[in-house]
Amino acid sequence: MSFFVGGLAAGAIAVTVSLLLRLFVGGIFIPEIESQTLFSLTPGQVESQAVERFGPLAKYSAFIGAVAANLILYGLIGLLVGLLQKKKRLPSKGYVLNAIQSSLVAYIILLVISALLLAVTETNVQVKLDSIRFLAIYLVPANIAFGFTLSSFYERIVLLRRSSITVTKKEDTSKIEIDYKKRLLLRAGIASAVALPILYFGLNSLLVPKKEIQQLSPSLSALLRSKSKAPGFEDPKLGSLLESEITPTDLFYRIDKNPIVPEVNAQTWNLTMKGLVNKPFEINYKELRDMPSIEQFATLECVSNKIGGDLISTAIWKGVRLKDLLEKARVKPTAKYIVFRCFDGYDVGIPLERGLLEGTILAYDMNGAPLTSEHGYPVRAIVPGIYGMMNAKWMTEIELVDKVYEGYWQRKGWSNIAKYNTHSFIIIPGNAPIRKRFRNLEVSNVNGTVPVAGMAFAGDRGIAKVEVSTDEGATWKIAKIKDPLSQYTWVFWNAELDLTGNNHKIVVRATDKTGKIQTDQIQDPFPNGATGYHTIDV
């Protein structure tokens, strides 16, 4: 047990060194690999239920669990080294040699386990090979720290045990045994006291990076003010709703497979165009930004979003048309799908015809500023009409292929068609989760005649009509609809309803511009996105 405790304490030092490298140098943190492997092996339906119940906590809990598992692994390595030394499989020949032996054992075990985890992780072969090469170097400092810390514990244990053997029969050897255990625990406690605060604050900065409250540029603010003047939306209670028609970047939802946000260096970044093209090429960040650009409003929604959920946001994006790059590459007639591959190993495919649409862009700016790391810096795809999982972030490669391509989430069972379902949510009044995407929403007084308002979305099909009911769908009142920011965004709706009395059940439904009314059939997000009416009780 002494060796296990020593291994835990030395492991805390090793994990701390590894975390500091991750924070200040970059690279790979072993718990990231462990948690991403777990995500890769988790069926899509299970993952969807976890996201629905726990939100981002599901991913963060898996990551913290991976950190704990890493510490326990180091404890077991300490136990193994102690047993090997006890059985003289590893000769005990002084502090430095013992430290080197312990470091080597830990290094080999961690490298083998990491390589095995990468082998089963859902990512491309080149990313795996590059990660293993990097790990071979990255693991060295942490495991040297482990070995030398562990050796200092063992040296103390050996010395105390030798002293307990050489005492006379009249002396109480149990007191010496207790003494060396106390000293071991004291040393382990000191090591933990050094490591744990660094681990706590370091992990917190990785998992919950500080966000600055974004102030929209004067031009964007003026644009919103001009568009907020819509008939039927004059009530001051709707002001805060209209102010976040463009979602501030710090409130914009984030869902991806990474527990820690990837950091990409735009100075060394390149985008590769390859596959079924006549002129494959690479383009760097500056060259991409120098190309003719467009600005476009577009709403993104996660396929995991539940009815009334907060995994939906709208921004103005700036970038280059994907079709301009495809024209530059001269796509071959046999090409059918465009495959996006990303810095974090993520991949997804979209039909070629989607990539050729005017609205499909490779965005490098969001809400008037360069993309943040959370949202795909330096470049991400914006593909109107299909769920957010098809809008790849941190892009590094585009490949044209001659068959339907199933990406990371599709291999786990999610839809590969991924067209947005027509749906509508009530934002005012009530406490629906979607309210998180709006700043300074007031709690409305629901007595008497009050405005009931919300949003509706149908991807690139647009919204033709929104209806609201207070009698569980027996009768419907047509709501006023505000002109959308673009054909690719949500629309806001508003209806004045008499809510006099104690209890009211408000229901909303939308009709898209193809004439299709959203279904009232309740369906969970997996695998095609949630459906059903949004209902609130007030």
Structural summary, described in words:
- It is a single chain.
- The protein folds into 3 domains: 2-207, no CATH class; 253-412, Sulfite Oxidase, Chain A, domain 2, CATH 3.90.420; 423-537, Sandwich (Immunoglobulin-like).
- It has 538 residues and is of the alpha+beta class.
- It is globular and about 85 Å long.
- The strands form 4 sheets. The protein has a 5-stranded mixed beta sheet.
- Helix 1 (2-24) packs across helix 4.
- The longest helix is centred in the N-terminal third of the chain and has 41 residues, at 125-165.
- The protein contains 12 helices and 18 strands.
- The protein has helices at residues 2-24, 30-41, 44-54, 56-86, 95-120, 125-165, 173-207, 218-228, 239-243, 285-290, 322-329, 352-355; strands at 270-275, 281-284, 294-301, 312-321, 337-342, 347-351, 361-366, 369-370, 380-382, 395-401, 423-428, 449-457, 463-469, 477-478, 480-481, 491-498, 505-512, 534-537.
- Helices cover 40% and strands 19% of the residues.
In short:
By secondary structure, the chain is α+β, with helices and mostly antiparallel strands. Helices cover 40% and strands 19% of the residues.
Q: How many structural units, i.e. domains?
A: 3
What is the H/E order? Answer: HHHHHHHHHEEHEEHEEHEEEEEEEEEEEE
Kindly report the oligomeric state of this protein: single chain
Cross-sheet strand order for the largest sheet: 2-1-10-5-6
* Helix vs. strand class: alpha+beta
Instruction: Give the radius of gyration.
Output: 29 Å
| Through-space gap between termini | 59 Å
